[in-house]
Structure formats: C-alpha cells, structure tokens
C-alpha cells in the first residue's frame, strides 16, 4: 500500500542517507501512517481511514464530520 494520508494527502519525501564516510545513498522519508477507525454520526457508520499522525490532530481539531465531508467532496471513496 502507498504511504499517503487520506486527510492531508501527505506523500513520502525523498533524500539521501549520508554515511560516516559521506557516501550518499537514496532513501525515502515515509509519513507516519496509521489505520484509524472513526464513528461518523452524519453517515451513521464507522469509517476506517489511513491517516498520518498530523492528520489525526487535524481530525481532532476540525471534527470527523467536516473531514469526511472534505474527503467525499474530493471524490475519494470511504
């Protein structure tokens, strides 16, 4: 599965690992993706989302109903 947050759309970043000898090799910085299950009163059911840690904080701040409405407005399936 891809490391993409359904709330914020956060994707992996890319860069280099730098060793002690300063040799650079490519690496990938993945967001902290969690599978989280929420009760959505407006839909009357549970929804499982793949969200980053920052996405969880966004849901806590805005509320699950608002966030789910934004996801559905983008045309994403829940």
Automatic annotation (TrEMBL):
NCBIfam families: L28 (TIGR00009)
Entry's Gene Ontology BP terms: translation
Signal peptide: none
Gene name for this UniProt entry: rpmB
An annotated Gene Ontology molecular function: structural constituent of ribosome
Organism for this UniProt entry: Cellulosimicrobium protaetiae
Entries under Gene3D superfamilies matching the protein: Ribosomal protein L28/L24
Pfam families to which the protein is assigned, alphabetical: Ribosomal_L28 (PF00830)
The keyword Calcium is assigned to this record: no
Keywords: Ribonucleoprotein, Ribosomal protein
GO cellular component, one term: ribosome
Domain of life: Bacteria
InterPro entries documented for this protein: Ribosomal_bL28, Ribosomal_bL28/bL31-like_sf, Ribosomal_bL28_bact-type, Ribosomal_bL28_sf
Protein name: Large ribosomal subunit protein bL28
SUPFAM superfamilies found in the cross-reference section: L28p-like
Family indicated by similarity: Belongs to the bacterial ribosomal protein bL28 family.
